[in-house]
């Protein structure tokens, strides 16, 4: 079992602590949180060992789980890597692209494994259809959330949209060609609503919308590809798969047939992939343990986390250009 320690005992940190303690792949050694009152409360309530410093915790473990505010990700990761410890780091990987590149380089030089917490990759609905998503040419995502002060220290792109950026980059096997975006600040100093259009070199276009001041929560993505439409509801954990194939000469009387202007007939088929219930956060943590033990590339590598951040900052740069006009 890998000895694991958690940096940060906020809302998400407490979830990570509980799941690491449950996991059969880790031995939870303890945690550190600089906010003494909260740290003491968590330690007393759940019985986790509270360390006196970041350094003390890092020295005691094999893997450091970084669940601190984004602004501190870089320093925490740097300290852990320099001590030869593997790192699981919550999304976004770091605050700036330069920090992400530095972490990626440092981890490579020290032969350290690192995984970024893009948890939607482990969403059971996405896992059920990801192998069916093949060369999508148009993607549309909506990630809407009710207002929550937690997370408003960063733009909605780094708070919410980055989930969809990572999903899109994982299924589109092409380089980003251009990015266009606009954002509006309503209650925060940074944009609360954003729309982005990402064009890829292979012709695929992705249209992303994110809001953290909506009246209801929504996390849906739709993928359109040759002869198929795939919808993923990350919130409700549901999928919809519609495929089209050349219609047979004598179709079943109940078959749904489409005929285009050229007379070509297609039959519509509905597929219902089996969705296996899971705990996505536990799955991502345990998949990282397997990557460490098997010396394999983590499912969401530091490189992939960096690329998601790169596109996110291209979108944010569009906001800055928009404000100068």
The tally of strands reads 14
Amino- and carboxy-terminal Cα gap: 56 Å
**CATH class bucket of the largest domain:** Alpha Beta
Return residue spans where pLDDT drops below 50 for at least 5 consecutive residues. none
Annotated CATH architecture of the largest domain: 2-Layer Sandwich
The CATH topology of the largest domain corresponds to Dihydrodipicolinate Reductase, domain 2
Mean pLDDT: 93
Provide the helix percentage: 25-40%
Order of helices and strands: EHEHHEHEHEHEHEEEEEEEEHH
Count up the domains: 2
Structural class: alpha/beta
H/I helix tally: 9
Strand content: 25-35%
Using only CA atoms, what is the Rg? 22 Å
Order of strands across the widest beta sheet? 7-8-9-6-10-11-12-14-13
What characterizes the major β-sheet? 9 strands, mixed
Please characterize this protein's 3D structure.
It holds the Pfam family GFO_IDH_MocA_C3. It comes from Tenacibaculum holothuriorum. GO terms for molecular function: nucleotide binding. InterPro entries: Gfo/Idh/MocA-like_OxRdtase_N, Gfo/Idh/MocA_Oxidoreductases, GFO_IDH_MocA-like_dom, NAD(P)-bd_dom_sf. The chain has 9 helices and 14 strands. The strands form 2 sheets. A 9-stranded mixed β-sheet has the order 7-8-9-6-10-11-12-14-13. Strands 2-1-3-4-5 form a 5-stranded parallel β-sheet, sandwiched between helices. The chain is globular. The protein starts with a strand and ends with a helix. The model has no long low-confidence stretch (mean pLDDT 93).
């Amino acid at each position: 079992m890998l000895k694991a320690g958690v940096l940060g005992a906020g809302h998400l940190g407490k979830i990570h602590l509980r799941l690491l303690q449950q996991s059969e792949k880790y031995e939870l050694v303890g945690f550190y949180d600089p906010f003494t009152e909260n740290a003491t409360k968590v330690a007393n309530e759940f019985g986790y060992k509270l360390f006196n410093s970041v350094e003390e915790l890092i020295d005691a473990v094999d893997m450091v789980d970084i669940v601190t505010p984004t602004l501190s990700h870089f320093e925490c990761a740097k300290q852990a890597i320099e001590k030869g410890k593997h790192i699981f780091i919550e999304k976004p990987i770091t605050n700036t692209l330069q920090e992400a590149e530095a972490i990626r380089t440092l981890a490579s030089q020290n032969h350290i494994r690192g995984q970024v917490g893009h948890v939607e990759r482990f969403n059971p609905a996405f896992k059920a259809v990801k192998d069916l998503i093949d060369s999508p040419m148009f993607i549309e995502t909506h990630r809407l959330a009710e207002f929550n002060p937690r997370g408003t220290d960063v733009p909605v792109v780094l708070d919410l949209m980055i989930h969809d950026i990572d999903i899109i980059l994982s299924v589109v096997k092409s380089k980003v060609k251009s990015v266009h975006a606009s954002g509006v600040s309503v209650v925060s100093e940074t944009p609360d609503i954003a729309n982005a259009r990402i064009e890829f070199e292979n012709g695929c276009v992705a249209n992303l919308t994110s809001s953290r001041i909506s009246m209801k929560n929504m996390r849906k993505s739709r993928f359109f590809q040759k002869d198929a439409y795939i919808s993923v509801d990350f919130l409700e954990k549901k999928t919809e798969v519609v495929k089209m194939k050349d219609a047979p000469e004598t179709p079943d009387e109940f078959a749904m047939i489409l005929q285009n202007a050229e007379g070509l007939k297609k039959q519509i088929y509905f597929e219902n992939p089996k969705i296996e219930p899971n705990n996505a956060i536990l799955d991502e943590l345990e998949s990282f343990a397997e990557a460490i033990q098997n010396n394999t590339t983590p499912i969401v590598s530091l490189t992939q986390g960096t690329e998601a951040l790169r596109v996110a900052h291209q979108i944010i740069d569009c906001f800055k250009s928009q404000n100068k006009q």
